[in-house]
Description:
Layout: H1 5-22, E1 24-29, E2 37-39, E3 47-51, H2 55-59, E4 70-75, H3 76-90, E5 93-96, E6 107-108, H4 109-116
Parallel strand pairs: 3-5
Antiparallel strand pairs: 1-4, 2-3, 5-6
Helix pairs in contact: 3-4
Amino acid sequence: MLQNQSDSIENYERFITRVLGNGEVYGLRSPDGGWAVCPSQEFEDTSVMVFWSDRAYAARHAKEDWSDYIPAVIPLVEFVDAWLRGMHRDGSLVGPNWDANLCGLEVEAIEVAKRLTT
């Protein structure tokens, strides 16, 4: 099921606003320390790391393949300085506030970093 572009943009904007407001980002972390990642729908051989602006959004995705994952908080400063920098270097994309069907924008890490530091 595809999400329409305007919903995806709205979810991305909500991600930026809420992350700036609360200073935290949430991902899903596995018991072995790995993080929730999906293959890109837009680019071959590219991974998308999914993150949410709220713990509840992340928790909704702890099902099926990620049923043993738990929401984990990442402080905003660490997210920008370490995560996004590393993702940019690795060529990974950010999936901000993807919906229940794992649909949403695939954004370059450097673009997310710019939005979160201006």
